[in-house]
Amino acid sequence: MITEATFYQQLNEQYGFDSFRPGQLETLTALAAGQHVLSIMPTGAGKSLIYELYGRVTQQLVVVVSPLIALMQDQVATMNYHGEKRVTALTSMMPYSEKVWTLAHLDNYRYLFVSPEMLTQEKVMARLSQLKIGLFVVDEAHCISTWGPDFRPEYLLLGRTREQLGAPLTLMLTATATPRVREDIKRRMRLPAASEITQPIDRPNIYLQVETVADTSEKQQRLVALVSQLAKPGVVYFSSKKLANEMATLINDQTACRAAAYHADLADESRFKIQQQFMANQIQVVCATSAFGMGIDKNDVRFVIHYHLPVDIENYWQEVGRAGRDGQQAIAVLLYQPGDEQIADFLSQVGIPSDDEIHFYFQQAKLPEYDTDPKANLVWFYKQHGMTEAQVRELFTKRLAQRNGALQQMVRYVRTDNCKRRFITG
Ligand code: ADP
Ligand code: MG
User: Fold this and answer.
1) Which residues pair with residue 335 across a beta bridge?
2) What's the pLDDT score for residue 284?
3) What are phi and psi of 92, to 5 degrees?
4) Which ligand is in closest contact with the Cα of 39?
């Protein structure tokens, strides 16, 4: 039996920290007792340390599923920096020869970071099945559930994958904590009885505000006024790339601060440059789509403004949570123009194929319009993994109903006269 003292000793030896952050020790202790755990901790709270220490203390292989290659690379670099060399990553971006080499030499490693799509490959699964996995970690576990920008279809297969790997002890990590998402994660991982370790999701230093405007021109004026008056740096979220561009220009023209647009249409290097400039305070305001988010860790963001209605509370809270991570006062403003829910309604259905479309894709011998239509990719993905047309149809019907419910809840948040904070944090 591993004692708390052992965890403290490793914490001190390896990192030089004296105390655990809330949730860390509780999670480690539950894992040591053989429980599967869903651990919910805010971004920046130190989720990685949990599986790092677990691997050190038990000296067993830790496999970490992570949704973004950039996150994995960061993590490997950070661990190397802390003196842990037995760590590697397996991603689809690696040259074939490197993948083969890594797979052949897995015995040399204690930690393996892997993208979910790698776990859909037979060779990878065959190799991993030969190993004894001490801990299977699903990082950013909300990717299995939200239907928002972070959703990753490959995450839906992880429940099955985990069982194919001999059902190892499992740790699911996320910063998104609403009860619906929690239940969904556990259900999809086929671990309904997993212990939940939750930290309070409230962020008392973020002031929540909803402002209703009459029309588009008032909305624009209000945005410019807020950006001028509020303490910076800040982020403004848009649901359209075009508006993000236009409003960045407007802010640059009409205020003294420097703004830049950030969205998926920019080349990788310009996105990277904007991130860097924002981190270095050379840009005070980023006009972003939801592409700006996961993995960005600037702790002194003073405001987050939403120009459009987010499609659900979970996404809203996730984006709002990028403000005030340093614990200092911050503000979240949602600008609402009656009728905005129609745009959100449209957006929440983007990516959900109709029955006709599903039928069409199932009839094809190969994937049409690969890369151009995400719906085609999604349907194709499920087809490749053995789902029937009826099952796929049912999946999307349920999703649609769920989306509508979630959007209605978002609208109730805007309209409620009660405490906004209580509405979100329960
Ligand atoms: P998360 O994945 O929860 O967003 P990370 O695991 O990236 O957060 O950790 C964020 C930072 O917190 C890291 O720099 C890490 O070194 C630091 N950290 C983690 N645990 C502790 C601790 N017990 N004491 C002090 N700093 C910690
Ligand atoms: Mg993390």
Assistant:
1) 211
2) 97
3) -70, -15
4) 1
Q: At what angle do helices 389-415 and 313-320 cross, to 10 degrees?
A: 60
Ligand nearest to the CA of 43: 1
Per-residue model confidence as pLDDT tens digits over 358-409: 999 899 877 765 555 677 877 887 888 788 999 899 888 888 887 888 899 9
State which ligand 1 atom lies nearest to the alpha carbon of 21.
Answer: 23
Give dist(CA 156, CA 160) in Å, integer: 9
List of residues 6+ apart from 2 with CB closer than 8 A: 32, 57, 58
* Residues within 6 Å of ligand 1 by CB: 17, 20-21, 24, 41, 43-49
Could you tell me where the DSSP H helices lie in 48-204? Answer: 48-58, 69-81, 96-104, 122-129, 158-164, 179-188
Query: What are the tens digits of pLDDT across the range 242-251?
Result: 999 999 999 9
| Burial class (CB within 10 angstroms; exposed 0-12, middle 13-18, buried 19+) of 214 | exposed
13: its two tokens = 């030896």
Structure tokens at 216: 């588009």
